[in-house]
Write a structure and sequence with these properties.
Elements: H1 4-18, H2 23-30, H3 34-41, H4 49-58, H5 63-85, E1 98-101, E2 107-110
Antiparallel strand pairs: 1-2
Helix pairs in contact: 1-5, 2-4
């Protein structure tokens, strides 16, 4: 499952570290507790839009830039998750629509929508 709060935190942390700034500096500038900002960066807390706005201001980052980067990462994560779930099903998961005996004791199993030949000894 893809968590938006984790992606937001990853992007915020990356932006902060690119600037060579510490959590303490950004939390002070954003007027957010150090512990809370740390939890946001680790994806453990959901940040309100007001909090995100304060953090973005402290990082001199437009909210739209933050959201664009998060959106790009979300799209990539969705593609990766989708690709991982698109595996070839094992023959055991097929619904058999027809079985035909072959002269050399082989069996052909045809699954609905696509034919898959399975050779059994």
């Amino acid at each position: 499952m893809i968590l938006l709060r984790r992606l937001l935190g990853d992007v915020l942390r990356r932006q902060r570290t690119r600037q060579g700034r510490t959590l303490r500096e950004v939390s002070s500038s954003a007027r957010v507790s150090l512990g809370y900002l740390s939890e946001v960066e680790r994806g453990q807390k959901e940040a309100s839009s007001e909090l995100l706005s304060s953090i973005c201001d402290a990082l001199d980052l437009r909210m739209s830039e933050l959201m664009r980067e998060v959106s790009d990462e979300l799209a990539l994560a969705e593609l990766a998750e989708s690709a991982a779930s698109e595996t070839i099903p094992s023959p055991m998961t097929f619904t058999v629509s027809s079985v035909t005996g072959m002269p050399d004791d082989r069996v052909t199993i045809k699954a609905p929508k696509e034919a898959v030949d399975v050779v059994a000894a």
